[in-house]
Structures are given as C-alpha cells and as structure tokens.
Amino acid sequence: MLTNRQQLILSAIVEDYVRMAEPVGSRALAKHEQIQFSPATIRNEMADLEEMGYLAQPHTSAGRVPSQKGYRFYVDHLMPQDPVELDSTAEALRAFFTQRMDEMEQVFREMSTVLSTLTKQTAIVLGPKMYTDKVRKIELIPLAKGRAVAILVTDTGHVEDCTVHLSEDIRVDDVEFIVNVLNDKLVGVPVSKLRSSLYSQLAEELTKRVERYEDVLAIVEELCQVGHREEPVYIGGAANMLKQPEFHDVEKAQPLLSLLEAGHTVTRWLPLEGLGIQVRIGEENPEGPLQDCAVITATYSLADSPVGHIGVLGPTRMDYGRIMKILEYTSRTMTNLLTQRMEGN
Amino acid sequence: MLTNRQQLILSAIVEDYVRMAEPVGSRALAKHEQIQFSPATIRNEMADLEEMGYLAQPHTSAGRVPSQKGYRFYVDHLMPQDPVELDSTAEALRAFFTQRMDEMEQVFREMSTVLSTLTKQTAIVLGPKMYTDKVRKIELIPLAKGRAVAILVTDTGHVEDCTVHLSEDIRVDDVEFIVNVLNDKLVGVPVSKLRSSLYSQLAEELTKRVERYEDVLAIVEELCQVGHREEPVYIGGAANMLKQPEFHDVEKAQPLLSLLEAGHTVTRWLPLEGLGIQVRIGEENPEGPLQDCAVITATYSLADSPVGHIGVLGPTRMDYGRIMKILEYTSRTMTNLLTQRMEGN
DNA sequence: TGTTAGCACTCTCGTTACATGAGTGCTAAA
DNA sequence: TTTAGCACTCATGTAACGAGAGTGCTAACA
To answer: Model confidence over B181-215: pLDDT tens digits?
Structure first.
C-alpha cells in the first residue's frame, strides 16, 4: 500500500511531531538523518500521504500532522519493534517493584503515580477484580444494637466489609450459628458464585434453626454485593494533562478532568477487551471528550487469568512506542509480583 | 475604624465582585439599591478604602477589587449573619442526608461530590480519625504460607486490614492463641493507645506460650500502624477549579490540581485547628499555589468530640456567606448522622 | 462641610493594517 | 525520477487607532 519511502516519511513525521508538538514541514524532515531526499520530494510524498488520509494540515501553509489513521498505521506497522532499552525509566520501575510493599492498595496507588511520572501522562490503574477469588473466611461482628459489620476475606488476602442490619433481639449464639454455617458452606466458593451458592446451599440449613429468615437473607445479600463490588480505580497525574500543549486551552481540558474525576466510570471507556496491550486512538474512543486522546491499556494477571488493568491516557500525539513498552514491562512485573505473593513469597 | 458608609460600600463591592468576577466601578455601585450616593462620592470612599488596604485596583482605569484584607474584613464583620434560607441548596443537602447509606466510605465520597456540586468549587472531605475509636475485635487469618491478614474492627464499625508475615511453621493453635490474647487484652482500648497498651499488657502473657516472640511483636506493630493510619481523603469537583475565570490560565491551575492530587498532603495545608468554621484567605494559606485561594473548613463530631473535617477550596473571590452556611449545615447534619448511627439508629 | 457634576486623563480591549516567515504546490530543468 | 525555483497562502507579531469604562481632581452646590 505505502511505499517504503512513504512509510519512512510517515514514521519520521509521527516521531517529530510527538517530540516537538508542532506541525512538521518538509524542510525540517529533510534534515533528518535517515532521509536523504530534498524537501521537494518530501513535499510530493506528503501530498500523497495526505490524500490517502494519513496526514492532515492544520492550515494551508503549515507543516503536516499525523491523522488518526496515520497514528494507527504507525502503531500497527512502523513503530520500532525491537526492545530498545528503557534506560533510566526501566531503572525507576525496577526500583519501584523491588520496594517492599505489603499493602496492595498502596501498591496500586503508588503505581499510578509512578506510571504517570514516567509517562508524563495520566495513569489509570484498576485494582484486581475479585471475581476469581475464593472465600477464605466470613465474619460477622455485632456493634451497637441492630447493627453489625460483615467481613469477607478472600484467599488472596482481599478484605471487604459492609454494614448489615440485624433484628435488635438477635441472640449471640444465633450470630455464632449463622457465621458458622456461612463459613461451612461458603468457604472456597468464588465470590462471583456467592449468590448462586447462597440459594442452593444455605436456604434449608438456616431455616432449621433461625426463625428470622429474612434477617439472614439480608445479610447474605449484602455479602453478595460485596463480592460484586466494583474494582477500585486509581488515577495518577491527572494534572499532567494540563502540561500537554493540546490542553492548554481550558475548554478542552475541563471535560477530560471531569471524566477522570468520575473514577468509577472509567470502565465504560477503557479498552478492556482482549489481552495484551490495547491502543485506542482518537475517534476510536467512545466518549466525546476522548476524541482527541489516545488510551493505551494492558492487563495484569494472577495465576494465568487476567485480573486487572493498567492504562495511560494522553493526547493522540503521544510516544506510543515508549509508553507501550513501559506498560508492557509494568504489567509483566505486576503479574510476577502478584503471583509470587500468592505462592507465599 | 471604617465608617458605616465605607462598610456598606466595601460590602457591596465584595458581593458584586463575587457575582460578576469583574472589577466593580463606581457607576455600577451607584445603581445598587442600598446605595444612594453619586458615583463621585463612591469614588472618594473607594480611594480611601484603597489607601487603607481594603481594595485594590488591577490597573489605573479599572474598577476596584477586594484585597485579602478586604475579604477578611467582610468575612469578620460585614457578612450577613442571619440565617438566610438556603433555598434549593438546603433541599439538596437534606435529600442527600436522608438517603439511606450504609457504607460510610460511600457517604464521604458522595458528600464530596454533592458539596462540590452545590458550591461549584472543590470540596475536600476528611474521613474520621479513628483515634478515639475503641478496639472491638481483632482477627488474624492465615493465607498462603507465611502470610496472614490481620483485621481490626472498631466499635464504630470501622474495619482496617493489613498483611502480616508469620513464620512458616507457626501452628494453627498458636494463631488461635495469639488472637485470643490480643482480643482479651486489647478490646476496648482506644486505637490511639494501642502501642502503649501493647507493652504494658501483652509482653509477658505471650512469652508464656509462644516461642517466636518477634513474630508476634511484628504482628502487633502492624496493627498499631493500622490504628495510626491516615484518615482517608475524598476530593470532589477538582475540575470545577477550571471553571473559575481566575484559573482559566492553565499556569495558575496546574499547580493547584497537582496539590490536590497528592490527596494525603491536604492535612498540611487545611486549617484544622480549632472548632467551628475556619476561613483562610489568600496569603493566610501556607502553600504557594494557594496564595490566591480561600479555604473554608468545618469539623464534624461524634459524641461531642470532633473526628473529621469537611472543606471547600476556591479562588479568594468566593461566596463566603453561602459556602460557610452550607458547610455549617453539612457539618451539623453529619454530626447527627454519625451520632445516630453510633446509638444504633 | 459634605456631596455632586463636569471634565480631562489613563488604560484595556478589539479592530485593522501590515510586514515577516514558514511552508506549500506547481512547473521546468537536470 | 528527482530537484531547484518561484509564486502563493496563511499564521503570527507589531503598531496604530478608536471606543469604552473608569478614575482623580476641581469647582459648584446644599
């Protein structure tokens, strides 16, 4: 489709533009090492590339800028594939991952800031889904009258809690009995299956002893919801957005920041399908404010099944190669970390 | 110090400027209902007010703008004190508080968005400190080899968890014993006193049976840190910042957003001393980026002791009266809510 | 003595005009 | 097929200018 020379030129334009954030002209390109053609030749090729939709021109006498299609082609075919060493960046990541961090929540939070610092973009980290976690223990701790806190611990060390309401005159050994039954029947069940296990396993057991059937049902309902709780979202470096020249205009930046602020909605627009690195450029994104953004995501896994996502959000003019490498490295290391952790160091 | 007329004029200038976000001139002021003087008279007074430092002039032929001192005087002496009804705003708040929300975390998160929506500024909600909470129960749940999760539940229903490392060959009944002792000795102790209780109560008890003294110490150390964990910070409407004309310049807004992003540092610059409503205007704030902001905070309490803070951050040009009233109402209702909750509905 | 009308002055802001420079497309020569 | 040359386009920066808003000061007025 594209001649070698056209590919070379497109590639150079993308890389120049990513670096300088300004439309790149034929003269500037001619100074590139790899390109030995005269500006005129380049101009001809550029005109062709524009006609084919890979480039765009902000206005008649400006340089060229990659279009969404141009970026896409670059990402799919032109980007340097060989593992160029990530120099100091890799160092920083390595340092981050060799820190001892016991609390996973802290890992995710810090990871979002590290990722955003390294990429100078906005980082999004989705905590792991618990779907595949299995129930390790359930506790029910009465507080003041009629209130108790139910705690669910999974085999990965995840702790979730919720408040439940009890009848005020429930007896201590009632509570104890409930907890015992819950643990007997539900330990080892994946949290995603909690609700279905509930009816098949618990119903008749509990009616044997406890009169207040509805109370108990309510408790377990709450527990089920805990199991289906949204994964936590950590956003780092949202303010980095404003450092990008394309968002120096507040009108552009404001909707984006608002979007990020509604953290739990990210799952609606992050590319979460498939495995591996996903890249969404410009209008490939659903939400309006993302139309001139690119989103890159990667998954991390636990025991071979993907459990969470990390991503980077920035203007379409972003250093795809570098960021994809960073994400790839991070997701790999993250997976290892989680897996080691599971296997008890 | 200031004549009645000067106070009237200052007050009018502040209120006009807050509304219009533009320097207010003598002609505009003369049209005010409460002011029956000619523009010339007003000009004279304004000149005096400026000389005294209550007003400032962006440039020679612009209207006047309140200075920090002007805002301060307005807040301290001029602001309408009588409880002007908060109209629809109060309605919204009432609606928010009458929603049934079991999970406190959700309450705080939503509160930050509600507050920011109502004030059109940035809202900051500090979750309650647990200092005064008392230990209700401690659990220790072994996971994979050498790892366990310790859970601490307080009498207010707060649940905190942390990962602890155990020797791999610890026995089940060792764990059970430890948990029993911990609960025997520490239940009812305020989390703030955990560490001191530890040494006075636990040391000899544990050495009686468990050989791995250090293991146990490590666990309890972790637990203590849980007790001293920072209060969670919820920030709502950070993107609202950008809607204020004073932050249409990205250079101004960016540092502020960065500051907000480092959520846990807010305790460094929020006015958290004393009780009641606190107002910090402009250079009364410590951090650089806050120099042209105002921060208003209020406390909320549980059983007569203040446990947390809510606050609003915006440009110095803000509607102090309204926002203070909103915060006051919110903190009062919040206090009631918490207290009711404690007393078991 | 306090208030007001009048007036000259200042300063911002938007518009227009114009020069500059970067970059292009096209044509013709190599 | 490539390149040099040239006319053309368009954004950007600067300067000039008028309009408008607001001030300070002075003098008249109650």
So the answer is: 888 888 988 888 887 777 777 666 666 665 666 67
**Any idea how long chain A is?**
345
Residues of chain A numbered 34-93 and touching chain B (CB < 8 Å): none
Query: How big is chain A by its Cα radius of gyration, in Å?
Result: 26
Same-domain check for residues B277 and B309: yes
| Residue that is last in its domain, among B206, B227, B248 | B227
d(CA A49, CA A342): 51
Q: At what angle do helices B213-227 and B172-186 cross, to 10 degrees?
A: 50
> For residue B118, what are the domain limits?
87-128+231-342
Q: Which two tokens stand for residue B219?
A: 């666990």
Domain boundary among A183, A204, A227: A227
> A205: pLDDT confidence band, cut at 50, 70 and 90?
low
The distance of B186 to chain A (nearest Cα, Å) reads 16
pLDDT at B207: 63
Residues B220 and B261 grouped into a single domain = no
- Residue B230 forms contact with A (CB below 8 Å): no
| Rounded CA–C1' distance between A32 and C17, in angstroms | 39
pLDDT digits (tens, 9 = 90+) for A318-331: 999 999 999 999 99
- Give the CATH number for residue A72: 1.10.10.10
Q: Both B236 and B336 in a single domain?
A: yes
The three-state secondary structure class of B316 is: coil
Which of B149, B236, B344 is nearest residue A159 as measured by Cβ atoms?
A: B149
Interchain CB distance below 8 Å, A253 and B242 = yes
A196 has a pLDDT exceeding 50? yes
Residue A28: CB atoms within 10 A of its CB come to 17
CA closest to D8 C1', residue: A61
CB A124 within 8 A of CB A234: yes
pLDDT band at B175; cut points 50, 70, 90: confident
For the domain that residue A175 is a member of, what is the CATH number? 3.30.390.10
Q: How many domains does chain B have?
A: 3
Residue B248 touches chain A, beta carbons under 8 Å:
yes
Q: Using one digit for the tens of pLDDT, what is the confidence trace for B95-113?
A: 888 887 778 888 899 999 9
Same domain (yes/no): B336, B236? yes
Alpha carbons A213 and A207: distance in angstroms, whole number: 6
Tell me the CATH number at A98. Answer: 3.30.450.40
Looking at the fold, whether A241 and A331 belong to one and the same domain comes out as: yes
| Whole-number pLDDT of residue A207 | 63
Q: How far is the CA of A28 from the C1' of C26 (A)?
A: 21
Confidence (pTM)? 0.91
B60/C14 CA-to-C1' distance in Å: 19
Which chain B residue has its CA at the smallest distance from A162's CA? B103
Round to the nearest angstrom and report the end-to-end CA distance of chain B: 52
